[in-house]
Amino acid sequence: MTDIQQIRNFSIVAHIDHGKSTLADRLIQMTGTVAARDMKEQILDSMDIERERGITIKANTVRLDYRARDGKDYVLNLIDTPGHVDFAYEVSRSMRAVEGSLLVVDASQGVEAQTLANVYQALDADHEIVPVLNKIDLPAAEPDRVRAQIEDVIGLDASDAVLISAKSGLGIPEVLEAIVTRLPPPKGERDAPLKAMLVDSWYDSYLGVVVMIRVIDGVIRKGERIKMMQTGAVYGVDKLAVLKPQMVDIAELGPGEIGVLTASIKQVRDTRVGDTVTHERKPCAAPLAGFKPAQPVVFCGLFPVDAADFEALREAIEKLALNDASFTSEMESSAALGFGFRCGFLGLLHLEVVRDRLEREYNLDLITTAPSVVYHIAMRDGTMRELHNPADLPDLTHVDHIEEPRIKATILVPDEYLGDVLKLCQDRRGIQLDLSYAGSRAMVVYDLPLNEVVFDFYDRLKSVTKGYASFDYQITGYREDHLVKMQILVNEEPVDALSMMVHRDRAEMRGRVMCEKLKELIPRHLFKIPVQAAIGGRVIARETIAAMRKDVTAKCYGGDVTRKKKLLEKQKAGKKKMRQFGRVEIPQEAFISALKIDS
């Protein structure tokens, strides 16, 4: 039984690549939680894809035992959070489970857009924040400049920021002391009825569903009957453990502690993140305020390349949705691609990660349709509909106007690239809201349509600023704009998988690019094939795929030229007839390449 005054719960927040996971490694090493022979880089990033891309995707927890300089033994619960904007949902969840945060800032790069976003989340959750300046052993490090920047931009007092190098282990003992002395202990009553927050859950093939909880009040013991307050389901606790990254069994969890339990729960769907766990017999009076469910902002269709894999895809998506509460899916069918799923994601990186995990962990070959956002369609009769798939747009005679989601984007960029960034935002129909300076870097705030950001905005931003800009966004609401549905017709038949919503001013350019691409991708047939982009009944771009030619005059040697002409006329008539009835086979590769996000 741990005294609540000796517990510290904290998370590490930072921009991408400022060294969160490396700092977590050093804290684990310094407290001797993992034996030296089992230690590896980024030990908390357990997924292959996390290690490969060098990013954290899931928030991970570890319990550290630490003897402080005052001779007392402390229990430190650390949650390592992702830094990328698409996984901000994981960050907000983790924040609610802890009382304090270490704010890690790279001493050579300074404050970035994501640093701001994550700090504001921590402040919203009433956290005590300890600033930590990492990478001070780099020649480019300027700790004094970055301290001043933290005070100017975020408004935090950084005069006593801890200076460390997570890579070499310099200053790590000071971080541990700062956690113990500067972060508050959790509050909670041991004798009150059990009240615990469900922070996360995932599926383990041996144990079933593993549920991570943070106990607020009361005590939970092995063998007790517990109840989930949102779903009303009742379970018996089979196993209680704490994570030292591996599970270590424990008899009970008291107030302020973070641990995991298994209770023969079959489906992760039965465990809602943010739910309140209490005793069946003696429940607590009121549930905790849960989390807002994650709102998917980007939708795309996932279809198996081989139609026989549909069932395997369904199973894989169900299993993946178990571990990822922010990913949604529903079934859809398409004339060109067969059966598949319409899936919702928090952003493009999230989409890529989910697709990579489906292809890797479940050995599937997938086609991804063009990503689209959710539009609001205002009908003439006063009703409002949501449009997830451009192919489902109702007849325009019934539509009053179409609204698209807008975002508020914050971009931090070095002064010399400012002109390029402003031009990029103007090209994407942006409206400038603010421009201020933090040291030598400009902070630009723009109102942008999400539709323009979804495709390749982040990649373009990185390339025009040579990778120095950082970008963060939040959704602000919907606004009416002049949007149209662009269809692609192949041999005068619409291909629903290729239809998309575009702004009227952009439609011709987008249509021309799509037609040129498809001309290269669709193989030649025995007859001429027109490829057209159309808005309603009006064609805005066209390319023609030439016919293959069989040499029908090969058998003519010598003789009159009219004989050759007659044969060619006959061939021409046959091709014309064939074009009326001929079917154009569009290969799967053509879809994949035409829909490539970089178009």
Kindly describe this structure:
With 599 residues, this protein is of the alpha+beta class. The chain has five domains: 4-182, Rossmann fold, CATH 3.40.50; 195-279, Elongation Factor Tu (Ef-tu), domain 3; 298-369, Elongation Factor G (Translational Gtpase), domain 3 (Alpha-Beta Plaits), CATH 3.30.70; 389-481, 2-Layer Sandwich (Alpha-Beta Plaits); 484-594, Elongation factor 4, C-terminal domain (Alpha-Beta Plaits). 26% of the residues lie in helices and 33% in strands. It has 13 helices and 32 strands. The strands form six sheets. Strands 11-10-16-7-8-15-12-13 form an eight-stranded antiparallel beta sheet. β28 (483-490) and β29 form a beta hairpin. α11 packs antiparallel against α13 (588-594). The longest helix has 21 residues, at 561-581. The protein is elongated. The model has no long low-confidence stretch (mean pLDDT 78).
The average pLDDT score comes to 78
| CATH homologous group name of the largest domain | P-loop containing nucleotide triphosphate hydrolases
Low-confidence stretches: none
Q: How many strands, what sense, and barrel or not for the largest sheet?
A: 8 strands, antiparallel
**How many individual domains?**
5
How much of the residues is beta strand, in percent? 25-35%
Give the overall form: elongated
The residue fraction in helices comes out at 25-40%
Q: CATH topology of the largest domain, what is it called?
A: Rossmann fold
Oligomer: single chain
User: What's the tally of helices?
Assistant: 13
Q: How large is the radius of gyration?
A: 29 Å
Cα(first) to Cα(last) distance is 59 Å
> Can you identify the CATH class of the largest domain?
Alpha Beta
